[in-house]
Amino acid sequence: MTVLVVGYDGTDGAVAALDEALVLAGELDATVHLVFAFAAPRLGGELRDLDEAIAERGHTVLERGKHHAAAKGAEVTTGFLKADPAEGLIAAAQEQDARYIVVGSYGERPLKSALVGSTPTRLLHLSDRPVLVVRAPD
């Protein structure tokens, strides 16, 4: 079965990516796998609380994504990874043997994207699978 991996963090761009992936999944008779990935802080101590808060937020966001898909008549699976978002999505795509990685974007200017290192830009450079970047609504 064909799988589409969708980077999902609950933002408008992620919702647009999920919506596009659901349409594409219907056309390809594919399944959708939502992934929330974040790089855990490298330091211990008080940052552990931040790490736990982000993890809790990630699980909540994934549940909302599942409900969003269900409201459109689709079922999705989810994955939660403590990894750099781009690297985590690539790992999830390899694990799922995904045909595409789908992510949202806010249409950052190329220079800002290169300097800040946006996830879509990193995916386009690192992934050996096709990456579909869906622009968030204005």
Summarize the structure.
The chain is an alpha/beta fold and 138 residues long. It is built from five helices and five strands, in the order βαβαβαβααβ. Helix 1 links the parallel strand 1 and strand 2.
The main β sheet shows up as:
5 strands, parallel
The top level CATH class name: Alpha Beta
Q: Strands of the largest sheet, in order across it?
A: 3-2-1-4-5
CATH topology: Rossmann fold
What are the secondary-structure elements, in order, as H or E? EHEHEHEHHE
Q: Could you name the ranges where pLDDT drops below 50 across 5 or more consecutive residues?
A: 110-116
CATH homologous superfamily caption: HUPs
Counting structural domains, the number is 1
Helical segment tally? 5
Report on the structure:
The chain has 138 residues and is of the alpha/beta class. It has one domain (3-135): HUPs (Rossmann fold, 3-Layer(aba) Sandwich), CATH 3.40.50.620. The protein is built from five helices and five strands; from the N terminus they run βαβαβαβααβ. The chain has a five-stranded parallel β-sheet with strand order 3-2-1-4-5, sandwiched between helices. Strand 2 (31-38), helix 2 and strand 3 (76-82) form a beta-alpha-beta unit. Helix 3 (85-96) packs across helix 5. The longest helix has 25 residues, at 47-71.
